[in-house]
Amino acid sequence: MTTWADFTAFLGANATVFRILAILAGAIVVRLVVVVTVNRVIARVVAESAADTGGETARKLPASQNTRLTQRTRTLGSVLRSIANWVIGAIAMILVLSELGFQMTAIIASLGILGAGVALGAQDIIRDIFNGIFMVFEDQLGVGDKVDLGDAKGVVEEVTIRVTKIRDAKGVLWFVRNGQIQRVANSSHRTR
After folding, report:
1. Which element (helix H / strand E) includes 102?
2. Of these four, 29, 62, 133, 163, which has the most CB atoms within 10 Å of its CB?
3. What are phi and psi of 185, to 5 degrees?
4. Cα radius of gyration rounded to whole Å, the chain
5. Is residue 23 pLDDT above 90, yes or no?
């Protein structure tokens, strides 16, 4: 029979393991909450823009702008989910390393120096990320748009923070790095 003293001794001996499991579980829960929240906001905006007489947005905007708002909302949702995944993952990793006894100040200082070196080597990735963010916020393209990006022509299936996925007329899925996109011909854009 296990006594309370045995149970507390067991918890004390395995406290680090339980704290790490709690951090990972917390990160999963926070990620789920963020994803569900983003999905609900997207669904609400899409429903309001698609409604004929329902929401305030549908009454104030013409049909072409409602469609564009829906596409842009879905694209922003995809980018927000990507950013949330990276941020939550990085925070969870830092907390787990802290629980394992690593000196976080030394690790963060080392990461700062390493980050400067990686930034020089990863200029293409950084260019992809910034170009992707600007494309979304400038509303250059969105999910469902018919675009011509040079070599890739077709319908935008997904826009992530680093890559835009285009499905061409033959059914081929193109993965175009956002930093390589020099021009966007968007035939879905109409005068607003």
Report:
1. none
2. 163
3. -105, 110
4. 23
5. yes
| Predicted confidence (pLDDT) per residue in 90-128, tens digit | 899 989 988 888 887 887 788 788 878 777 777 888 788
pLDDT digits (tens, 9 = 90+) for 79-92: 788 888 989 998 99
Predicted pLDDT of residue 124? 81
Q: How crowded is residue 140: how many other Cβ atoms within 10 Å of its Cβ?
A: 19
Confidence of residue 192 (pLDDT cuts 50, 70, 90): very low
Helices (H), the chain: 4-13, 15-50, 56-60, 63-99, 104-121, 123-137
Residues in the chain: 192
Select from 2.60.220.30, 1.10.3720.10, 2.30.30.60, 3.30.70.100 the CATH code of 136-186. 2.30.30.60
Q: Where are the chain's structural domains?
A: 4-121, 136-186
Sort residue 165 into left (φ over 0), alpha (ψ -120 to 50) or beta: beta
Contact 70, 123 (CB under 8 A): no
Domain 4-121 of CATH type 1.10.3470: no
Mention every residue, 6+ apart, whose C-beta is less than 8 A from residue 91. Answer: 27
Q: What is the rounded (10 degree) CA torsion for 82, 86, 91, 97?
A: 150
Helix (H, G, I), strand (E, B) or coil at 122: coil
**Encoded amino acid at 140, one letter:** Q
